[in-house]
Design a protein that fits this description.
234 residues; 44% strand; disordered N terminus; two-stranded antiparallel ribbon; 15 strands; alpha+beta; globular
């Protein structure tokens, strides 16, 4: 995406926020609100301004860490760490996305950050409830692995569609499927092993695909409202 097109999309986002507000599917809204209560409460989730996670995964046959830092409204970074060395970093500073590899900072392909223009919160659930950003539809119930799930379709004003699967016993989001999302993003993510960090209950395992042998990552550290500053995105 060239910069002129990028800023046109940004302008479209602001215009759309006033044009496309619409009444949301009440059942879908209730399910997302129930999940927000299950993970800590809606007002508490709104109070989280930064989120830090450090996950371990396997890459090229050896352990690697994925460090993700997020800051409201749409700022974030992703690092690949081997041992104590950051071998790759990608980040979005609120306006543009960048990469850092071999010590060299370069302007990234902005298609990898296009959804950031339509993000106002760290937790996607809050954005899904925003009728200026998403249209929600309750699809029905569907079994996934050992859970019976309530399935919701969330359609963003930029054309991205996300199917969300909420365990109707725990209320937790256990799977998401994304269509027309950011370039190189994962289309299916499975969430599990929920644990409590302070007041926040959060998944600690992520599987990138429905196949049991798909790549997985496990969160080893999680901090909210600490360990992240504006300097991380410069």
């Amino acid at each position: 995406m060239n910069l002129s097109k990028f800023y046109f999309v940004l302008l479209f986002a602001f215009i759309s926020s006033s044009i496309y507000a619409q009444k949301q599917d009440e059942k879908a809204v209730a399910i997302i609100n129930k999940e927000l209560e299950a993970i800590g409460g809606k007002e508490f989730i709104k109070s989280i301004n930064t989120l830090y996670t450090n996950s371990v995964t396997q890459m090229e046959g050896r352990n690697a860490n994925w460090v993700v830092k997020e800051m409201k409204p749409n700022i974030g970074s992703f690092e690949i760490v081997y041992g104590q060395r950051v071998v790759f970093k990608s980040w979005y500073d609120g306006k543009l996305g960048y990469n850092l590899s071999n010590g060299e900072k370069t302007l990234a392909d902005q298609e990898n950050f296009k959804d950031k223009l339509f993000k106002k919160n760290i937790f996607n659930e809050l954005d899904y409830l925003d009728s200026t950003l998403y249209k929600l539809e309750y699809v029905g119930t569907e079994d996934f692995e050992s859970a019976k799930c309530d399935k919701i379709k969330a359609t963003c004003i930029n054309g991205k569609t996300v199917f969300l699967y909420f365990d109707n016993k725990t209320a937790f989001l256990v799977k998401s499927e994304t269509l027309n999302g950011e370039k190189d993003s994962f289309s299916t993510v499975v969430y599990g092993d929920f644990k409590t960090f302070g007041k926040l209950t959060y998944f600690t395992t992520m599987r990138f695909g429905v196949d049991p042998d798909s790549q997985t990552a496990k969160i080893e550290e999680l901090f909210y409202n600490e360990k992240v500053s504006e300097n991380d995105f410069k």
